[in-house]
Design goal:
CATH topology of the largest domain: NADH Oxidase
Domain Nitroreductase: 9-159
CATH architecture of the largest domain: 3-Layer(aba) Sandwich
Structural class: alpha+beta
Family: Belongs to the flavin oxidoreductase frp family.
Strand order of the largest sheet: 1-2-4-3
Shape: globular
Keywords: Flavoprotein, FMN, NADP, Oxidoreductase
Radius of gyration: 19 Å
Pfam families: Nitroreductase
Protein name: Oxygen-insensitive NADPH nitroreductase
Amino acid sequence: MNSTIQTILAHRSIRKFTQQPIDSNQLDTILQAGLAASSSSLLQVVSIIRVTDKEKRQRLAQFAGNQAYVENAAEFLVFCIDYQRHASINPDVQADFTELTLIGAVDSGIMAQNCLLAAESMGLGGVYIGGLRNNAKHVDELLGLPENTAILFGMCLGHPDQNPEVKPRLPAHVIVHENQYKTLNLADIESYDQKMHDYYANRSSNQKQSTWSQEVTTKLAGESRPHILPYLNEKGLLKR
């Protein structure tokens, strides 16, 4: 097993950081790794906003649900769909197709994962912050995003000040299908639920008595940020 695979398999979300800054050369390498990511048709429809202003960091932490590590991490990056560049080149650009929003979301995820893996390969840690979408319009206004550009998620990066356990994932045979979709075997979920129950009960922090099925069905049983569609529509995206 090479060092790249080891880095990937050792991933943990880090939510507590030391006060040590990230070296400028390291940050540049992280960003260059992101820029090297695959891009659909080389459209390059992602923008990254590096937030260094302390007051803005504080407000972003509040907007994201009072997540203190947004404010305290050495670096905080915000990933955005961005078709404003293209519209500036040619006003005939039609950025409001659903397919183009999907491309922006997919490419942002690919770019962000490149950044995170690069950081983790240097001994740094990080965590994705989807909570920015709790208050998408406020975040958008704070960062001054133009038309055809919208926030997706943030990323904290820094030197880890915790060593959490690796969280178990569903087994590959549940996720990976061959040639066609196969019917779910609920016994596989029961086995995984027991593994997650043990993980939650025995991990070093935030212990709880729960299973994966309980967690995800609770999450999916109610509304999921219904304000996101009108937000994207207002930005000129996801209209048709």
